[in-house]
Specification:
This protein is an alpha+beta fold and 428 residues long. Helices cover 35% and strands 19% of the residues. It is built from twelve helices and 14 strands. It has helices at 8-21, 27-34, 38-51, 71-84, 90-100, 107-116, 183-197, 217-222, 229-237, 251-270, 276-295, 312-318; strands at 143-150, 160-167, 173-178, 202-205, 240-243, 321-326, 332-335, 338-342, 355-360, 366-370, 373-375, 377-380, 393-401, 407-415. The strands form four sheets. A five-stranded mixed beta sheet has the order 3-2-1-4-5, with helices on both faces. It has a four-stranded antiparallel beta sheet with strand order 6-9-10-11, with no helix packed on it.
């Protein structure tokens, strides 16, 4: 059913005709006021005199459209949407109604029907509300860390990642190029920051697995917090990691990325640097100091919130990858496809099937610990697979009877792969 009330245009005409009836306007003046011809105004006046304002309403008001779909068809469509396409939008529902059910309905018609039946409502996609965050007041209170992938060397070299730290209070920056945004790239930059300024209170990062990660199924069952290798290193230093939920939240470092992608690229071009070793040297000797002189600002408060920088040996003990492994029956620990044979210990030896801690530093050195005690070990070669090549090959002939067609001889070759377990027994 269409509308039943008067439209704004019809109400305007009724108001003018009422003034004509009251003698306040002549019919010629009414036609000018309504922007109609005099003859058309006379027709409207005649209808108004015969039936009042209601007579000025269009004759099709309240009637069903001649092109309207049958009520049975409308009910069928809505029932199908309700049972099969309840969470679908009008566009997708119309596509499946036409292709799967043979019910062709225009999208806008279906949208109107679904809104009237309460099956769909327009959801405005509002941008999330964001409140501007003020800078921290102290140097070292919060440092933002991120990696920026870019064609830093343009056509002179490959694409690289600028690992970047920006102090939130002063915009003091420190950066270093690496191939990827990895744990060691982040740890190396953090160590340089600590050696230069001290240990910051907190790091502001994004939700990459290098910095933070969601807990796995076992950690959720045990109620444990998920910690990355970089997060464990920061925990030993007393640095809190805060994960930003959006790029806008760490806008300080994102905006400085844009500055570097403009200025640094051009400066590297001027000095004709074509590799990242030379680019890192240029950062340390020239660019970072110049950038900080130009863009760094004084903190709102004078106190420096960096903690005292640890000694080099203490930092060496922090920056290790750590993983748990199980000692086999022959006192061998497998780590990253390497076999590490534990040496005979007079004391503090780890029993077989016990769990030990395997640590690896950036140089690739490996150390094994059991209950805080270092265990001596040596690497042994992996078992060779050359001995098993060609073994386990069996040739046979199978007789298969297919009805009355007789016996068909089928020659097949069965290759059995045998896996040999090499046990390494330490000399006693």
């Amino acid at each position: 059913m269409g509308r039943t009330e008067l439209s704004s245009k019809e109400l305007s005409r009724a108001e003018v005709m009422a003034r004509v009836k009251a003698g306040n306007l002549r019919l010629g003046e009414a036609s000018e006021l309504l922007e109609l011809s005099y003859r058309q105004a006379k027709r409207i006046w005649a209808r108004y005199r015969g039936g009042g304002a209601k007579a000025l309403q269009h004759g099709n008001c309240g009637r069903r459209s001649n092109r309207a779909y049958a009520e049975k068809f409308r009910t069928t469509v809505l029932e199908q949407v309700r049972h099969r396409y309840e969470e679908f939008g009008p566009t997708l529902a119309a596509e499946h109604l036409a292709s799967d059910d043979g019910l062709a309905v225009p999208v806008e018609t279906l949208r109107r029907w679904m809104k009237q039946a309460g099956l769909w409502q327009r959801q405005r996609r509002r941008k999330p509300y964001r409140r501007r965050r003020e800078r921290k007041a102290h140097f070292g209170e919060l440092v933002q860390m991120d990696g920026s992938f870019h064609e830093w060397l343009e056509e002179r070299g490959p694409r690289g990642c600028l690992m970047h730290m920006v102090d939130d209070a002063t915009t003091t920056v420190l950066g270093r190029f690496s191939a990827e945004e990895t744990t060691w790239a982040a740890a190396g930059l953090l160590r340089r920051w600590i050696e230069q300024y001290g240990v910051p209170q907190a790091l502001y990062t994004d939700w990459k697995n290098v910095y933070v990660r969601p807990p796995n199924a076992q950690e959720r069952l045990r109620g444990e917090a998920a910690v990355t290798q970089f997060g464990r290193m920061c925990g030993k230093l007393g640095i809190r990691i805060i994960a930003a939920s959006s790029p806008q939240a760490k806008g300080r470092v994102e905006r400085v990325h844009g500055t570097h992608q403009d200025r640094l690229v051009k400066k590297l071009r001027l000095v004709e640097i074509d590799n990242y070793v030379a680019a890192n040297r240029y950062l340390e000797e020239h660019y970072i100091a110049e950038h900080n002189r130009r863009y760094a600002r004084a903190a709102a408060a004078e106190a420096d919130y960096h903690r005292r920088r640890p000694r080099a040996r203490q930092l060496d003990e922090v920056f290790w990858l750590e993983e748990e492994r199980v000692v086999s029956e022959d006192w061998v620990v497998r780590y990253k496809n390497r076999l590490l044979q534990l040496e005979r210990q007079s004391q503090h030896w780890a029993p077989s099937r016990s769990r030990v801690l395997v640590r690896e530093n950036e140089a690739g050195e490996i150390a094994i610990y059991y209950r805080g005690q270092h265990l001596a070990s040596r690497e042994v070669p992996l078992p060779s697979t050359a001995m098993s090549r060609g073994r386990g090959t069996v040739e046979c002939t199978l007789g298969l009877r297919h009805g009355v067609k007789g016996v068909v001889a089928v020659r097949c070759k069965i290759i059995v792969r045998q896996h040999w377990l090499l046990r390494i027994v330490s000399s006693r």
